[in-house]
């Protein structure tokens, strides 16, 4: 599934990377704890988080995540936006809560990070 | 046989500098990618250095990260001046953490840092002296033996 399809399903606002939405999402993980993302994240994953500081983008870059979606209408801080632009990581925001966003993506067939290699 | 070389670089990391936290790891990651190191190895190096870097930012006063790349391996020595770790066995347990509320707000302090560094290393050593500091040795092989 492409990020563009995810964007439509979760009714996201694009904060960074409007022209980079055709990327393929391999799996999804949701966490506010970046240490957990570093421990369990997989390359090609989509990260859902409520953490808005620059570490959310930094962690996405380090783990080779494809994109970050902020839940509950949150927006990343300025430093994170700058880093995302530099690294070419799309940032999106959805009004849905973490549980809702994860549940919807799982129900349309996107696998969890624990289900892929 | 083959070409023998060594690339070495030293980075300073300041304790409490949350604004720049992670920038050293990003630099190392970008450099390794540029050299053409396989992405699975780059990722392990990046995760291990990022956790080590966060540990210095969160807990120590000051630290030096020394990075050495040879044709066989990547060796990272992280040496910090700080409070040290009283019980290394406990610190290596997943979920054990002495993090403050502020650290948790940063998205860290889940008690996964050191176990995660070990998981991504082929060789891992930790030594620590209370009220002096902690030293990590991380080695990641380029060709899995």
How would you describe this protein?
Chain A has a single domain, classed as Udp-n-acetylmuramoylalanyl-d-glutamate--2,6- Diaminopimelate Ligase, Chain: A, domain 1 (3-Layer(aba) Sandwich), CATH 3.40.1390.20. Helix content of chain A is about 35%, strand content about 15%. Chain A contains five helices and five strands; from the N terminus they run αββαβαβαβα. The longest helix of chain A has 10 residues, at about 80-85. Chain A starts with a helix and ends in a 10-residue tail after the last helix. By secondary structure, chain B is of the alpha+beta class. Chain B has a single domain (about 5-140), classed as Heat Shock Protein 90 (2-Layer Sandwich), CATH 3.30.565.10. Helix content of chain B is about 35%, strand content about 30%. Chain B has five helices and five strands. Chain B has helices at about 25-35, 40-60, 90, 100-105, 115-120; strands spanning about 5-15, 60-70, 75-80, 125-130, 135-140. In chain B, strand 2 (about 60-70) and strand 3 (about 75-80) form a beta hairpin. In chain B, helix 1 (about 25-35) packs antiparallel against helix 2 (about 40-60) and helix 2 packs antiparallel against helix 5. Chain B is globular and about 50 Å long. Chains A and B meet through helix 2 and helix 3 of A and helix 1, helix 2 and helix 5 of B.
Fold topology:
The complex is a heterodimer of chains A (117) and B (145).
Chain A: H1 3-9, E1 13-16, E2 27-30, H2 34-40, E3 45-49, H3 54-62, E4 67-70, H4 78-87, E5 91-93, H5 98-107
Parallel strand pairs in A: 2-3, 3-4, 4-5
Antiparallel strand pairs in A: 1-5
Helix pairs in contact in A: 3-4
Chain B: E1 7-14, H1 23-35, H2 39-59, E2 62-69, E3 73-81, H3 88-91, H4 101-105, H5 113-119, E4 123-129, E5 133-141
Antiparallel strand pairs in B: 1-2, 2-3, 3-5, 4-5
Helix pairs in contact in B: 1-2, 2-5
Notable characteristics:
heterodimer; A: 117 residues; alpha/beta; Udp-n-acetylmuramoylalanyl-d-glutamate--2,6- Diaminopimelate Ligase, Chain: A, domain 1; 5-stranded mixed β-sheet; 5 helices; 5 strands; globular; B: 145 residues; alpha+beta; Heat Shock Protein 90; 5-stranded antiparallel β-sheet
């Amino acid at each position: 599934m492409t990020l563009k399809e995810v964007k439509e399903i979760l009714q996201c606002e694009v904060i960074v990377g409007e022209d980079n939405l055709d990327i393929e999402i391999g799996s999804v993980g949701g966490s506010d704890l970046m240490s957990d993302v570093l421990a369990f994240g997989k390359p090609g994953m989509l990260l859902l988080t409520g953490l808005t500081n620059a570490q959310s983008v930094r962690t996405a870059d380090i783990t080779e995540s494809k994109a970050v979606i902020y839940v509950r209408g949150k927006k990343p801080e300025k430093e994170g936006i700058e880093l995302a632009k530099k690294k070419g990581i799309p940032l999106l925001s959805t009004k849905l809560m973490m549980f809702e966003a994860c549940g919807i993506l799982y129900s349309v067939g996107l696998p969890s990070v624990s289900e892929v290699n | 046989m083959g070409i023998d070389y060594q690339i070495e670089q030293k980075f300073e990391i300041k304790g409490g500098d949350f604004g720049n936290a992670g920038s050293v790891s990003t630099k190392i990651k970008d450099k390794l990618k540029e050299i053409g190191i396989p992405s699975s190895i780059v990722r392990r190096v990046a995760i291990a250095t990022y956790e080590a870097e966060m540990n210095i930012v969160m807990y120590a006063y000051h630290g030096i990260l020394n990075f050495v790349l040879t044709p066989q391996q990547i060796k990272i020595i992280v040496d910090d001046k700080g409070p040290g770790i009283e019980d290394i066995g406990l610190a290596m347990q997943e979920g054990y953490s002495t993090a403050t509320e502020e650290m948790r707000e940063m998205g860290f302090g889940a008690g996964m840092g050191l176990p995660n560094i070990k998981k991504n290393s082929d060789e891992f050593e930790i030594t620590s002296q209370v009220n002096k500091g902690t030293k990590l040795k991380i080695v990641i092989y380029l060709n899995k033996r």
